Amino acid sequence: MKEWLRQNPTFVVDGLDATQSTSQQLRASLRKQGWTLQETDTEFRLIPPGAQYESGSVLRELLDEPEKDTNTADGEEAAFGLEHQLRDFLAQNLASIPVNGRRLRVYVDPTGRDGVEFPTAVGPIDILAVSDADEFFVFELKRGRTPDYTIGQLMRYMGWVSQTIGHGKAVHGVIVAKQISESMRYSVCVVPNVSLFEYEVSFQLHSSSLVPPPGAVG
C-alpha cells in the first residue's frame, strides 16, 4: 500500500507522508476518503469510492478488525482506541522492554533506513530489531486477535531476513497481540525461535492542581 501511495501521492492527505506515516494512519485516511481496503494473506486491494465491494462485516474480518461491541466497558474502549499506536510505542520504547532476557534496539540498515515497517521482498516487517549479540528479532503485531495466518506471515519475514541480511546470525520471531488465541499457542509450540506476547494498555489521571478543587475534603 505504501509503495502505491508513493507512486500516487495525490491520494495522500495533507499532514501525512507515504514513507514516514504509519500504515494505520494511511489506512484511516483512505477510509475517510471513501476507499475500501481489503487484505488477505496473499494480497492487498485498494477499492476506490463507488466501486463494488464486499460487505462491511467481511471487510472487518479481512482487515483483522473485530466489530465494535456497543456493550464494551469504557476502559476496554479506551484500550481499543490506543491499539493502533502499538507499533510506534514498541519501537520508541524497545530498549526498555526485555524480550526473552535480551535488550533490543531498532535495526538500522547501511543506508540509514530504520526497522519500523522495514520493506522486504515478501512484505513490510512491522518492527525489525537486533540484540546486543547481533541476533535479529522480527516483530509481527496484531491490534486484536491473532488469526492463523499470522504465523505464516512471520515465518516468511524470518526466512527473508535469514537469507538476505542475516548472514548466518540467529533470527527470532515475536508475535505481539491484544489476545493470543489458543490455536496460535499450539502452532507456535512446535516452531523454534518464536515467542508470543500479549499487551495491556492502561493509564491514570493524577491531579496536579495547586489548590484543592471546590468542595474537596481536606
TrEMBL record:
The keyword Ribonucleoprotein does not apply. Residues 117-183 form the Endonuclease NucS C-terminal domain. GO terms for molecular function: DNA binding; endonuclease activity. It holds the Pfam family NucS_C. Keywords: DNA-binding. Coiled coil: none annotated. InterPro entries: Endonuclease_NucS (IPR002793), NucS_C (IPR048301), tRNA_endonuc-like_dom_sf (IPR011856). This is Endonuclease NucS C-terminal domain-containing protein.
